[in-house]
Structure of Glycosyltransferase involved in cell wall biosynthesis:
Amino acid sequence: MICMNVDVVLPCLNEARALPSVLSRLPEGYRAIVVDNGSTDGSADIARSLGATVVSEPIRGFGSACAAGVAASTAEFIAFCDADDSMDPRDLVPLVERVARGEVDLALGRRRPVSAGAWSLHARLANRALAFLLRRATGYRLTDLGPLRVMRRADLLGLELEDRRSGYPLEMVLASRRAGLRVDESDIDYAPRVGASKVTGTIRGTVTAIADMSRLLRAYDVESDLLGAATGATSARLTEGVRR
Ligand SMILES: Nc1nc2c(ncn2[C@@H]2O[C@H](COP(=O)(O)OP(=O)(O)O)[C@@H](O)[C@H]2O)c(=O)[nH]1
Ligand SMILES: [Mg+2]
């Protein structure tokens, strides 16, 4: 295994029971940055006692936590992983290697459930519908918008992501498309999480996620249409010029 300079951002909201397992499986040389949004179960202390860097972010929201983790990062590569033990951080290694080899700019994990309980039916169907819209909008051949992601820090900072709620992962892909970056996915295991879901496992979380993501996709489609119209007008003007 090549030893890389990698910071792993782990958004964390009450994941005290999951953290020991997640952090124990971090590949050698990878630094954990656990971003806590006011957990009440001692998550921050546990993460600290296990050697993680802990960032406390007062503003709630998944994207807010991710952005705070990125702000605290210094490594050449940044990875994102849920702190709920549903994914194995060792699966980050091949993703980091793909980016390091220059094969892709944003490497995503395509979740493969290891058991029936790993992925609820509604979350799976919503994810499939989202992946369809994402493929249509960007042309990337994606089938999942998974939580395991790797980018070069410089590329990620260049995207200037603004979403601070559930749209953060989607905005990362849309902004990568605008920036002309290469995005691809590789299979990773997806196991049942430890503890209760905060996003797709709750009605409030699911509704917020759908609202955030729909808004981003609509804005992206409008922008693409405007860009298409502007490019069309320019080429019409050019053709006109040639005719004259
Ligand atoms: N810091 C922070 N972490 C969050 C927030 N919401 C979710 N998380 C964490 O983000 C990760 C993804 O959330 P999760 O509940 O697993 O969503 P699911 O994968 O859709 O079930 C987990 O590690 C959560 O603890 C939040 O508002 N703030
Ligand atoms: Mg999760």
About this structure: Residues 6-243 form a domain with the Spore Coat Polysaccharide Biosynthesis Protein SpsA; Chain A fold (CATH 3.90.550.10). Strands lie at 6-12, 30-36, 53-56, 77-80, 106-113, 149-152, 183-190. The helical segments are 19-24, 43-49, 62-72, 92-100, 121-138, 153-159, 168-178, 203-243. The pocket of magnesium ion (ligand 2) is lined by residues 82, 84, 86, 147, 193 (CB under 6 Å).
